[in-house]
Specification:
The complex is a heterodimer of chains A (350) and B (51). Chain A is mostly beta strands and 350 residues long. Chain A has three helices and 19 strands. Chain A has one domain: Porin. Helix content of chain A is 9%, strand content 55%. Chain B is mainly α and 51 residues long. The longest helix of chain B is centred in the middle third of the chain and has 33 residues. The radius of gyration of chain B is 18 Å and the shape is rod-shaped. Classes of the chains: A mainly beta (350), B mainly alpha (51). At the A-B interface, β1, β2, β3 and β4 of A face α1 of B.
Chain lengths: 350, 51
């Protein structure tokens, strides 16, 4: 399916020369396919990246995903480096929006398997499993299990990254009995060295007799030096999201995000502007949005294993403020003596 | 279309699988990590936040 993307048919097709020796239509079809594949190879288009990571740079620059309020402590212990094995104890309290919580997490990863699990003080378990079959094929499973009825979630997905395209299929809460659930398929194709276009189909089936299909369209433009990226995403029901990310220097990234909803009954838009500074021992993020919120987060590392976080947000329109402090302590797997032993260069026999 | 009886069985199996994953997932990761780690950590270090 992926070898003949329908979207490519608009590009000038390669016409196979009439070969006199072609006796069957099968071999000529194969010939056309072969010529098409080699023509496609000769373009040397890059892989556009996955749909999930379309806005990765923007998300890691903006503060939205990192903000917290109240007090927080993360104690992580890395017990092994190769394969990676880490356990984390996280405590949070005093937040205005979320209840105090304790969370235990464990991560295991080697070259092709990634396992992650977390359990909170109420016994809700979240899990994640990634299995890489080859460099281009990854199967992922994600689940959220709760003892309350109706709060559990399962998501299965498969990613395939071709030479100049990416395919992803996803199923959320698929039921083997009546095939209800949410199904998604996406395809992203590079058209030039800079531009990639894609489409994402969403098929919802909440009840066996009720189905709904919707398409959203994606575009991503990457500059030649990869130091700025613009993306746009057009979703059904009149939703549009546009983002822009630029690396101003080694240490400074800026990002902008615009979300517009233009449904018949509702017109709304939110713009967000943010910057991230990566300094030698600290990371600073600042953000301003059109709902009147100004926020900042400082992550200061005092030692390689100890960092201190301060965050703050002022909502000027609602006249409200939030502050947060946090510590992150990471204890290494080895004692200092063992570390020194490891760092000593091995004495090679002459 | 499967019969009612098969449906019942599938639902029961899914429910059982869900329960097993719910209680077994974290111990499973810890077991895998503990046995494959290099060097193998001590158990007390694994569980206690302060050790």
């Amino acid at each position: 399916m992926a070898a003949y993307p329908p979207s490519l048919s608009t590009v000038e097709p390669v016409v196979a020369p009439p070969s006199p020796s072609s006796s069957s239509s099968k071999s000529s079809a194969f010939n056309v396919f072969h010529r098409f594949a080699s023509w496609r190879n000769s373009l040397g288009l890059p892989n556009p990246g996955t749909v999930e990571n379309l806005q990765k740079e923007v998300k890691s620059t903006l503060l939205t995903n990192f903000f917290f309020d109240g007090a927080r402590a993360d104690l992580s212990k890395s017990l092994s480096v190769n394969p990676i094995f880490q356990v984390t104890h996280s405590f949070a309290l005093g937040s205005q929006t979320v209840a105090p919580s304790y969370n235990f997490g464990a991560v295991f990863a080697n070259n092709n398997v990634f396992l992650q699990g977390g359990v909170d003080h109420e016994g809700n378990v979240s899990g994640r499993l990634n299995q890489g079959w080859s460099a281009n094929n990854v199967t992922k499973a994600q689940c959220q299990l709760s003892s309350q009825v109706g709060h559990s979630m399962l998501q299965l997905e498969h990613d395939y990254q071709g030479q100049d395209y990416t395919v992803n299929i996803k199923a959320m809460n698929p039921s083997p009995v009546d095939a209800t659930g949410i199904y998604m398929a996406s395809y992203l194709q590079s058209f030039t060295k800079n531009l990639a276009l894609g489409v994402e189909m969403l098929h919802q089936r909440p009840q066996p007799e009720m189905t709904e299909t919707a398409a959203s369209y994606l575009a991503k433009y990457t500059n030649d030096d990869k130091n700025w990226i613009a993306t746009a995403q057009l979703q059904p029901a009149g939703m549009m999201q546009a983002t822009y990310w630029q690396k101003l220097s080694e240490k400074v990234d800026v990002a902008a995000d615009l979300q517009v909803i233009a449904a018949p009954g509702r017109r709304d838009a939110i713009a967000t502007l943010g910057a991230k500074y990566d300094l030698r021992m600290s990371t600073f993020r600042a953000q301003l949005d059109s709902t009147g919120k100004v926020s900042a987060l400082l992550e200061q590392r005092f030692a390689p294993s100890f960092s201190f976080l301060v965050s703050g947000e002022i909502d000027h329109f609602k006249n409200a403020a939030k502050v947060g402090v946090g510590v992150m302590i990471e204890s290494p797997s080895m004692t200092p003596e063992e570390m020194n032993m490891m760092q000593m260069p091995p004495t090679l026999p002459p | 279309m499967p019969s009612e009886e098969t449906k019942e069985r599938i639902i029961k199996a899914v429910e059982l699988g869900r329960t097993i994953v719910h209680y077994g997932w974290i111990p499973f990761i810890i077991y895998i990590g503990y046995t494959r780690s290099n060097p193998q950590p001590s158990l007390i270090k694994l569980i206690s936040p302060l050790a």
